[in-house]
Amino acid sequence: MGSIDTQPQTWPRATEELLPSTLFKLAKQFPNRRYAEYFTDAKNLADGYRKLSLENFANAVHAMAWWIEANVGKPDVANGTETLVYCGPNDLRYGVLVLASILVGYKMLFPSPRYGAEAIGRLIDQVNGKVMLTPSTPFPVVNEILQKRSMRTFEIPSLEAVMFAKSEPYSFTKTFEKHRLEGFATLHTSGTTGFPKPIVWSHDWANSVVEYLQLPQKAGDFETGSHFHGKRIIFPFPAFHTSGVYGHLFLPLATGTTVILPPPADSPAAAMDGLVDALDFLGDAPDARVEMLALPPPHMEYLAQNPGLLDRVSRVGTVMFGGGGISTFAGRTIAKKMRMVNDIGSTELGLWPSLERPWSNVWNGEEVEDLWQYTPMHPVLNLQFRPVASSVDGEVGEAVLVRDDKEVVAPIFHIFTQEKEKSLGDLFVRHPRHPELWKHYGRADELLNFITTEKFHPAVAERQIGDHEAVEEVMMVGTRRPKAALILRLKEGKSVDDVWDAVEEVNQSSPVYARVQKDMVLVVTEPFLQTAKGSVQKKAMLELYQPQLDKLYGGSVA
After folding, report:
1. Residues paired with 183 in a beta bridge
2. Helical (H) or strand (E) element with 360
3. Closest-CA residue to 526 (of 472, 476, 486, 484)
4. Cα separation of 109 and 198, whole Å?
5. For residues 363 and 360, what is the distance between their CA atoms, to the nearest angstrom?
6. What 3 state SS string does 285-309 have?
7. CB of 372 closer than 8 Å to CB of 300
8. Which one, of 244, 430, 260, lies nearest residue 351 by Cα?
9. Which of 272, 270, 261, 94 has its CA nearest to residue 186?
10. Which residues lie across from 53 on neighbouring strands?
11. What are residue 414's phi and psi, to 5 degrees?
C-alpha cells in the first residue's frame, strides 16, 4: 500500500478503460494517494478541512451506487440511455454521481443552477429526464422546475456520508471494448447564443480525453502540456461544468492531480477571499503546498483588482485560467507576479492539448509581449484556421478540427461521428513571428454581420472599452443593422462622457462601419445576462433590449 503522498514516476496508463474501472484499479494500487481536499466552513477552516484518498473516493462511488439502486432502482436497460438529473452545491458529489450512475446503468445530467427554470426544463425534456436528485436543501430553481413537471425526486446522501463510508463493492463487470459507445454523462452548451443544448459524452469520448491528457511529453522540439501532472491544484470551477468534471475526475485519474476545493462561496470575490485563507491554512510544507491555481475569468479579474490578495497568492507560482477571456489589465497585472497558463476548452472537445508554456515571457528564444494571451496548439489537434475577417491584430481565422485518427481520435468526433472536419466556432489570430502561438479572438457566432455585408469581430473593442475604470460591462451590437452600437453598464455616478475618450481610441483603429457614434450608446443599469461559465448571453441580451435598440437605431443619424 502506498503512502498518502505516493506519486509514481509515470502515472499509470488509463486508456481503453471505463473510468470507474480506472478508479478502482488506482484505489488498489495507491489506496492512500490523496485524491482531493476540501473545506466545508469558510469561517472555521480547521474544523471544516477534509482530506480524501483514492480509496475514499472509490468507497464513495460504491456507496452512492448502492444508494441509487435502493432508491431510484435499476434502469430497464443498463446501457446509459436513461438519465438522472442533479443540481446541487459545488462539491465532490458531482464526480461521485458520474461514476456511481455508470455502475448502476444510468448517466447523469448536471444543469447549471444559474439558468432559469425554462432553460433547465428544456434540457431535461431533451434527455427525457424522469428523476431529479437533490441535496438536502434544493435550489429555488429546482423547486420551480418540480412545480411544472412530474419527476420522481430523491434527496441524495451528504458528501460526508458517502466519502467516509465503508461500502461493499458494487459489482461492475463492463469492459471498454463492449460498452465504449454507452453514455458516460450529459453536459450542456453554454447558451451564449440561445438556450443550452445537451451534449452526451460516451465512454469513447472520455477515453479520448484521457488519451489527450496522457500524450507523450514531447512534440517535436516542444514540451507538451504537462502542467497538471501530479500537481496539487486549487480548483474553484463549477462542478456542473465541463471544467468541473475535468477537475473532479479526469485530472485526478489520468494525471495524478490532487484537486483542492476552497471554502464555499457565492461570488468570485468571496471565493478568492476564501481561497487565499485556504492557502494560508495549508501552508508551504512539501505535502501541503499548493502548486497551481485554476481560476475562471471573474476570479482572475477580482484578483488583479486586489493587489494585496495577488501578493498573497503569488507564492503559488502558476495560475491557469480558462472558460473565457480576461481583460488586458488583469492579464498584465497577474503576469507580473505569476506564470500564467491560458487553457482553452469546450463541451464537445474538452480541454485542448497544448504545448508547455514557459516560466517567463520568452518563447523560443525571443521575448513575447503579453505571452499570457497566447496558446501554443499541440499538433495532435490537426487544426486549420480558416480566414473569416480582418482585424488590427491581423487575419482572424476560425478554428476547424480536421479528423486525423493516426494518433488519437479527437473527442468531438465521438459526438459527431460522421464528420470529417468540425468547425469549433472559436476565432484566433496568429502571432506574427511565432506560428505555433495563437490568441483567442472570440466566437464566430459573435461576429457582427452588418446589413452592408461587412463583418467585424467586437472582442478587442469590447475588451479595450471594458478596461476603462468607469465601465462595468460593455457589449457591441450591429448584426443586421447599418452600423455599430454599444450596450453599456457604467459604474455608479459615471456617464458616457467619462468613457468617451476610450471609445474614440477604439474608433480610430476600427473600420468606418464599426465605429460607434456618441448617439449610438444604450446605457443600462441591470447586470448583463450571463451563461454558466460567466460569459455574456449575447442573444438573450439582444432580445431583452430589442425595443430600446430599435428606438436607438431609428432615431440615429446614418
Report:
1. 202
2. none
3. 472
4. 8
5. 8
6. CCCCCCCEEEECHHHHHHHHCCHHH
7. no
8. 244
9. 94
10. 34
11. -90, -5
Report the top-level CATH class of 447-554: alpha beta
Q: Which three cell numbers stand for residue 374?
A: 497566447
User: Rounded to an integer, what distance in angstroms lies between the CA atom of residue 334 and that of residue 182?
Assistant: 43
Secondary structure of residue 82 in the 3-state scheme: coil
pLDDT digit string (tens) for 170-185? 999 999 999 999 999 9
- pLDDT, one tens digit per residue, over 54-87 is 999 999 999 999 999 999 999 999 999 999 999 9
Buried residues in 220-242 as b, exposed as e (16+ CB within 10 A): eebebbbbbbebbbbbbbbbbbb
**Cβ distance 558 to 521 under 8 Å?**
no
* Cell output for 117: 427554470
Q: Which long-range contacts (CB under 8 A, 24 or more apart) does 149-152 make?
A: 149/121, 149/124, 151/85, 151/124, 152/72
CA 334/CA 311 separation, integer angstroms: 10
AA identity, residue 310: L
Strands 198-202 and 218-219: unpaired
Upper half-sphere CA count for residue 303 (Cβ side, 13 Å): 31
Phi-psi label, residue 207: left if phi above 0, alpha if psi -120 to 50, beta otherwise: alpha
SS3 148: helix
Query: In sequence order, which residues have a C-beta less than 8 Å from that of residue 386 and are 6 or more positions away?
Result: 397, 398, 400
Please say whether the beta carbons of 90 and 264 come within 8 A: yes
Confidence (pTM): 0.87
- Angle, helices 328-335 vs 297-304, to 10°: value is 70
Torsion of CA 340, 342, 343, 345, to 10 degrees: 150
| CA distance linking residue 261 with residue 490, whole number of Å | 33
Amino acid (one-letter) located at 162: V
At the topology level, CATH places domain 374-443 in: Luciferase; domain 3 (2.30.38)
Alpha-carbon span 442 to 457, nearest angstrom: 8
**DSSP state at residue 266:** S
Q: Cα–Cα distances in Å, from 183 out to 19, 20, 153? A: 12, 13, 22
Q: Domain limits of the chain?
A: 374-443, 447-554
Contacts of 143 (CB under 8 A, 6+ apart): none
Distances (CA, A) of 488 to 84, 499, 503: 40, 10, 11
Q: What is the band of 1 on the pLDDT scale with cuts at 50, 70, 90?
A: very low
Q: Determine the Cα–Cα distance for residues 522 and 548; give it in Å rounded to an integer.
A: 8
Output the CA torsion sign for 138, 139, 143, 149: negative
Helix (H, G, I), strand (E, B) or coil at 109: strand
Start-to-end CA distance of the chain, whole Å, equals: 75
- Tell me the per-residue pLDDT of 263-311, one tens digit each, with 9 for 90 and over: 999 889 999 999 999 999 999 998 899 999 999 988 999 999 999 999 9
10-57 pLDDT tens trace: 899 999 999 999 999 999 999 999 999 999 988 899 999 999 999 999
Strand partners, 37: 51, 260
H helices then E strands: how many in the chain? 19, 29
